[in-house]
Amino acid sequence: MSSDKVVVRFRGVRKLYKLFASDKKRLLAVFLPHIPYSEKWAVDGIDFEIRQGESVAIFGVNGAGKSTVLKMVTGVTYPTEGDIFVDGRVSALLELTAGFDSELTGRENVVLKCQLMGMRDEEIAAKMQDIIDFAEIGEYIDQPTRTFSSGMLARLGFGISVTTDPEIFIVDEALSVGDSRFQAKCVRKVREIIERDQVTLLFVTHATETAARFCERGIVMKDGRIVFDGAISDAVALYEGGGY
Amino acid sequence: MQTFRTILLQHIVWRHQLLKLARADIVKTYSGSALGWAWAILKPAVTIFVFWFAFDIGLRIGRGQDYAGYPFILWFMAGMIPWFFMDEMLTEGANALRDYHYLVTKMRFPIATIPTFVSLSKLLIHLCLIGVTVVFFLCYGYAPDRYLLQLPIYMLLMLLFFIAWSQFACLLGAMSRDFYNLVGAMTQALFWLSGILYDVHTMDVPEWLRIILLFNPITFVANGYRNIFIYKVWIWEEPDVLLYFLIVLCVMTVLATRTYAKLYREVPDVL
Asked: How far is B22 from chain A (nearest CA, A)?
């Protein structure tokens, strides 16, 4: 299913978070060089390549660095060291939501989000009903998204992402809030776009059986490093077993 | 310089999206309240009424003084109208990245353009207020004249300065709430220290103090708007004042660009 074209490549990537004692110290550190902080290497030397059309699950306990990796692929956060190469339009559901403006209605958010992806107004109008139907939001679509439940936010975000032709699709936990029927629907839809459009999927979850249903490759992370990278069944076995 | 070019390029590439975001910003500000758009006019109207009442009726400062032959309220309005924009930009500008944190932390988006579309959104409200002002002057029997032609120049200069300010302030505001609170506290002080309620040119102060006051970009803008509506002075007739402003604009732009270069990688991690 996957081609030979590399769409994501990490080379010696490290990511440092500077932890300051307070906000005040952080502000001072902008101007003064010697403000002390503690270092947290969230990602500590990572190399991998992902080819077009691959579907990869990343496992790891909280704090293993999974989300940081996805954020770096998306381009919202920058590596401290190392090189990252990403080729293709990225659509990401980070930390459950797709990044909605809580004051705008669901419909306005869909329009805005699509506009930000560079779609024209006619295209957006054509896809609007598909998105609403997929997300099963109904008449809530015209309410501000601050009134949405986390499940509704995740569904709407998922709906936008899968109907707007992503090339690299990043899902961070977003499936875990939906009910099992919606999860099944998402799995079907994701499989469909992977097979039809050669979409590359990067998927972070704790639900190993969901991952096993549509990923071929699994990466297990621990303390900011990759401890396993290979077939999904082996990755699940290792992660579930916990002996890594 | 490289950073400045990058920022300009991002603006060009994302120009369509910026206009859409500016529109969304307006929709967001004024939807969800029953009076909606009316608030954009009502809030300034109340402020102007209060000041007019306190100064003209209460303290009688407006009486007996010469405002180039204009009633106090028109003189005050001409300087106050741009303040509403500047006030919003001072505080909201410092908060722009926090308001739009989802553009920073949830998708790939050039964060240097966030202050720009926020400014454009506020500018539209400002244009509405200018419309009201012109009508107000008409009601008093003062028709628009050729001096109104230089309004776009002052507006552009004001916009450029506050985009640069916001570029600088939103990054620091994202790094720490202390900075945002500091700006909030400073805004009131700036209002009273700027030439909005008095004319810096005719103040009875030593020359060195006058020059310091004229370096204040808020004074420049308020003064410029009065040159248009009241004093009927062309912008090139006060070259020293324009020069002071351009110096401050350059310093602010350099400061904003350097702050961006220093902080843009860190900001997504702290929001």
From this structure: 11
Q: Are A58 and A203 in contact (CB under 8 A)?
A: yes
Whose tokens are 């139907």? That residue is A133
A71 CB neighbours in chain B (<8 A) are 105, 268
Tell me the per-residue pLDDT of A140-168, one tens digit each, with 9 for 90 and over: 888 888 888 878 888 888 888 888 788 88
With CB atoms and an 8 Å threshold, state whether A78 touches B108: no
Contact A110, A161 (CB under 8 A): no
ipTM above 0.90, yes or no: no
**CB nearest B178 (choices: A27, A97, A104):** A27
CB–CB contact A104 B102 (8 Å): no
Looking at chain A from residue 136 to 195, which residues have their Cβ under 8 Å from any Cβ of chain B?
144
Instruction: Identify which of B24, B109, B176 has the shortest CB distance to residue A108.
Output: B24
| Residue of B158, B130, B138, B151 lying closest to B220 (CA atoms) | B158
Domain boundaries, chain A: 6-89+166-241, 101-164
* Contacts within 8 Å (CB) and 24+ apart, B55-58: B55/B197
Interface probe for A, chosen from B104, B107, B179 (most Cβ of A below 10 Å), is: B107
B28: its two tokens: 């967001």
Assigned token pair, A61 = 């306990």
Q: How far apart are CA B132 and CA B88, in angstroms?
A: 18
Taking the C-alpha atoms of residue A100 and residue A90, their distance in angstroms, rounded to an integer, is 17
For B:158-197, CB contacts with A below 8 A are 172, 175-179
CB contact under 8 Å between B270 and A26, yes or no, is yes
Residue with tokens 């869909």: A110
Query: Of 3.40.50.300, 3.90.1170.50, 3.40.50.620, 3.40.190.10, which CATH number belongs to A6-89+166-241?
Result: 3.40.50.300
Give the tens place of pLDDT for each residue, A43-81: 888 888 888 888 898 888 888 888 888 888 888 888 898
Tell me if chain A has a CB within 8 Å of the CB of B68: no
Alpha carbon distance A236, A221 (integer Å)? 12
Tens-level pLDDT at each residue, chain B (271 residues): 888 899 898 888 888 888 888 888 888 877 766 666 788 888 889 999 998 888 888 888 767 677 878 888 899 999 999 999 999 999 989 999 988 888 888 888 888 999 999 999 999 989 999 999 999 899 988 888 889 899 999 999 999 999 999 999 999 988 888 888 889 889 999 999 888 888 888 888 888 888 888 899 999 999 999 999 988 889 888 898 999 999 999 999 999 999 999 888 888 888 7
Q: How far is A238 from chain B (nearest CA, A)?
A: 31
Q: How far is A33 from chain B (nearest CA, A)?
A: 12
